[in-house]
Design a protein that fits this description.
The protein is of the alpha/beta class. The protein contains 14 helices and 14 strands. The strands form four sheets. Strands 2-8-7-6-5-3-4 form a seven-stranded mixed sheet, sandwiched between helices. Strands 10-14-13 form a three-stranded antiparallel sheet. Strands 1-12 form a two-stranded parallel ribbon. The structure holds pyridoxal-5'-phosphate. Residues 26, 88-90, 93, 114, 160, 164, 192, 194, 221, 223, 229, 234 line the site of pyridoxal-5'-phosphate.
């Protein structure tokens, strides 16, 4: 399969190891193992961890206990046989789109979006139609536009709720409408929901897609909202037949998820309230700081504040450089890593991640302020 280079991942891999400061990450400040285990009975957990056999998981689709725990997150349509544990959401997205998208199919994907949500389907030969979220509409989706894109060959609609890079969401009414169309016209809806729990503003996130319809395939992860990206653990919750086919696909990619991660993911999901309390506290604090910062820097940015997640995607103003040039110069001079809109085929924008440690985040904002003010203010 001839797949396009993954722009944002390549960008991060080029610069990240030399960065001193970062606003490029998409997850909440990761837990240390110690910090995670301290949420429970540390001694007992330590003993349990030390006795885990470092073999393949049995079954390779994830332990029954983990699949059961994941299934319990969804209100409907999720039993153990509907769940496949994967190596991150990235593997989940890959297998769902790889299996469902074929030559001659139409796949409709939100745009801008994380590239994994459409490049695999494109490489499989499907025709990709983009459902564009426009900055002038505050990245709010126009469902009538989506309706016009659906044709008789539509096999899959790919949604990212909330969206990377914009942080915008689809409303519950809109999601229910899309799922009703899927049921009537017999296509599937992939809902990548890896930022779902990070509600900055209460009541804006719709329920998980899979809780609403059997035509929905939900993808989740321990990475973003849970701050546990190093577990490399995600999941698919979908129709039994599709889950089985994705498992067969996984035989060719990673075979099995890691038993250590399986154990820690069960522990984290059981303690999700404590985890989300810590993570939402960080996200909301940084969100408030960012909002105030943007108000002071309106000369440089047209911004639309996100409603969920730890990402936003402002447009640059009054800066005589492309977003890529700006990111490269700031990186060279200040060792501060940002992501340019070019990584999402939206030049002129910056993706700012604000899930990191609050003190570091404030330092990053000061560095960016100093740089912009010194070089471009009223010039
Ligand atoms: C929308 C989306 N899906 C999936 C992923 C991959 O996440 P994971 O670490 O779970 O593989 C990312 C990572 O940035 C993402 O933004």
């Amino acid at each position: 399969m001839n797949i396009k280079s993954f722009k944002v991942e390549r960008w991060l891999n080029t610069y990240e190891s030399d960065a001193d400061y970062e606003m490029a990450e998409t997850d909440v400040e990761p837990f240390t193992l110690k910090e995670l285990l301290e949420l429970g009975d540390f001694k007992k957990l330590e003993e349990q961890l030390l006795s885990i056999k470092l073999g393949y998981n049995n079954p390779t689709s994830g332990s029954d206990k983990l699949k059961e725990t994941v299934a319990s997150l969804y209100q409907h349509n999720a039993r153990i046989e509907n769940v496949l544990i994967t190596t991150g959401a990235i593997e989940a997205d890959y297998h769902v789109t790889n299996y469902l998208a074929n030559q001659g199919d139409t796949v409709i994907a939100q745009f801008p979006a994380y590239q994994a949500l459409y490049s695999t389907a494109e490489a499989r030969g499907a025709k990709i139609k983009y459902w564009r979220m426009k900055p002038e509409n505050e990245y709010k989706p126009d469902i009538n536009e989506l309706k016009r894109l659906i044709d008789e060959k539509t096999k899959l609609i790919v949604l990212n709720i909330p969206n990377n890079p914009t942080g915008a969401v689809i409303s519950e009414v809109q999601l229910k409408t899309i799922l009703k169309w899927a049921e009537e016209q017999d296509f599937y809806v992939l809902c990548d929901e890896v930022y779902h729990e990070l509600e900055l503003i209460k009541g804006v996130v719709p329920p998980y897609g899979r809780s609403l319809s059997k035509k929905a395939i939900s993808v989740g992860s321990m990475s973003k909202a849970y701050g546990l990206s190093g577990l490399r653990l995600g999941w698919i919750v979908g129709p039994k037949g599709i889950v089985q086919k994705c498992w067969e696909g996984k035989d060719y990619t990673t075979i099995s998820n890691a038993p250590l991660s399986d154990f820690l993911a069960i522990f984290a999901l059981i303690n999700r309230e404590k985890i989300m309390h810590r993570n939402l506290t960080i996200a909301r604090k940084n969100f408030k700081t960012l909002l105030e910062w943007f108000k002071e820097h309106e000369y440089f940015f047209d911004y639309i504040m996100p409603e969920v997640g730890v990402l936003c995607f402002p447009k640059l103003r009054n800066i005589p450089l492309t977003s890529e040039e700006l990111c490269k110069i700031i990186f060279t001079e200040k060792k501060l890593l940002l992501v340019p809109g070019e990584c999402f085929d939206m030049p002129g924008h910056l993706r700012i991640g604000f899930g990191g440690d609050s003190k570091n985040f404030n330092t990053c904002l000061s560095i960016l302020s100093d740089y912009l003010n010194k070089n471009f203010r009223n010039k």
